[in-house]
Amino acid sequence: MIDILPYLPTKRKSTASGWISFNAPCCVHNGESSDRRQRGGIKVNDQGWSFHCFNCGFTASFIQGRNLSFKARRFLQWLNVPKEEIERVNLESLRHRSVQGILDDRQRTANTVQGIEFEDRELPDTFALIDQHMPVHWQYLRDRCVPENYPTGMIHGQPDDKFSRRQGVIIPFTYDGRIVGHTQRFFDDHNPRYIHDMQPGYVFGTDLQGPNWKHAIVVEGVFDALSIAGLAVLHAEINDAQARLIRSLDREVTVVPDQDEAGMKLVDRAVELGWAVSMPEWPSNIKDVNDAVKCFGQLVTLIHIFQARETSKIKIELRKKQLVKRLRN
């Protein structure tokens, strides 16, 4: 495995948690100005390394025994690692994988969701668990109907952080009890309102599901999911990997889109996947499931969802046209 430390900038500092901070080389390649405040962080162990930039949000990682990913290769190139050295590392990594290791990988893939795996991720160094002693953040979570036992953090940026003046909360993304990413939601309405560290194919809320549940409710946003123990795809679409993960739960799926024009994309995708759709007749000021829970409470909201649940393509299309007409008037 490559000793990556000699390729890091000489100006760097180490933290007690094992992270090494230095000027991130990725920012200028991702539309940001050159990092001069050591916003890049890398953690190295015997099995590989993990890099995260707290300026432009770029991440990359490498584990011995696996192929170098496209992002890992780019990161090494930005560190001026010679091309032949990068190829040597990749070949050595593949040789390192024994026959038994390949068999273990195949078995692990067979036991996971059709080959979907998520790597462990670190939460931001600024993460601090929210409790009643942080009244602004605590009340925000209560207003958004987030369960008190779900671990959430507050945003408190460093002086050199471009978002340091914006307050907000951090919601960890978990899968099988492991942290595999997070989202930051700022309190103000300036853009960006959300910053995701999200891996391809990830669906939020699988750890919220009960073991014997027969239904799964798919929504768009993380607060929608938290308020009803649902599944959030975190954008107005469902990609193939997310669909495979949701199907693996072996439940009757109901998609509840946001009641805006963007949310109608979820309706079309749900029909394509053969899933039920629910578009309750809520007042015009209620845009999504979280708004409904804040207005009616969780139980009544769930009743509304199941009462409006529809599997007929014709009836789904009629209800969709009604919603679109209301939105445009």
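The above is record 1. Record 2 follows with the same two-line structure.
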Amino acid sequence: MAARTTQQEIRRLEDEVRTLVGIGKTITGNLDIDAVLRAVVDRTTRLLRPRNWTLFLRHPETGDLIFTIIVGRVSRMLQGKHLPVSEGIAGWIARTGSPLLVRDVSRDRRFSSRFDDLTGFRTRSILGAPLKVRGEVLGVLELVNSDQDPEFNDRELRLLEAICDFAAIALANARNHSRILELTRRDHLTVLYNSRHLHDVMRAELREARRTGRPVSVIFYDLDSFKAVVDRHGHWTAASILTEVGALTARTLGGRGIGFRYGGDEFTVVLPGSGPRRARRVAGELRQALRSGRFGGRLGVRLTASIGVAAFPDHARTPAALIQRADKALYRAKAQGKDTIFVPE
């Protein structure tokens, strides 16, 4: 009997080692955050077989824990809710950066029953570990109410720690990769995206537009007589003014569209779901915001813009053709005397 038990333990340990190696390869070999999180779900389920568990991620600004992935019957009720790190077992793990096994939460003063009260769920035991890289806690993985007897044990705690170590490295790598990608898409001077990213966005938006039948519009505008501003105030001030124009563009759009600095003093806006009429209204708002603004600090530089509008499918049906049509509309606006908006028939 003892020999059989030893063989079972050896096989179990071999399975655990193979699974952990697989976790390492699968999770740390991926730079997509969503794929990393899916892999954490899959591997945690395979190795520990929990019925109820939560992956919390840390909010980058507030530091709160966010219910990000929830497995169990109350998942919909908790998705996206915030847990301060000053509250509960998960909060303690995030605050201290230490793993924790609580076999009976009713005997632990760190436990918060707030979410049990909200959902009607009854938490009996908790196994949790931090996702920690170089001392920074990125999140917490928490297992609730094991079906085993005894409920949770130290071996499972060590396994969970190993999973969290792999997951934290993968999550940090994916976030860094995402930040680098974001930097390559942003214009160096403004808060807007750059022209390279414009073409990627246009391909994606027109693909979606063909699938759904919704329109997409493009606004092209440049600042009238901006060379005179450069000649009078210099390149440093001109660059500062372009930064201000980028911020004004983002504020005026207010989430309705995606702004880009195309190059020089030329700007582009993509409006998903907007036809020519709505695009013209947005163009009018941009025109008025520029006319009303004063730029360059105490210099109080006044600006106007010539604006062209084109829409899919009304004026063009490919990304390149739509951008070209909006660009031509911009030059038609300039030809009409600047500080105007032109929309093709």
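The chain has two domains: 2-185, 193-342.
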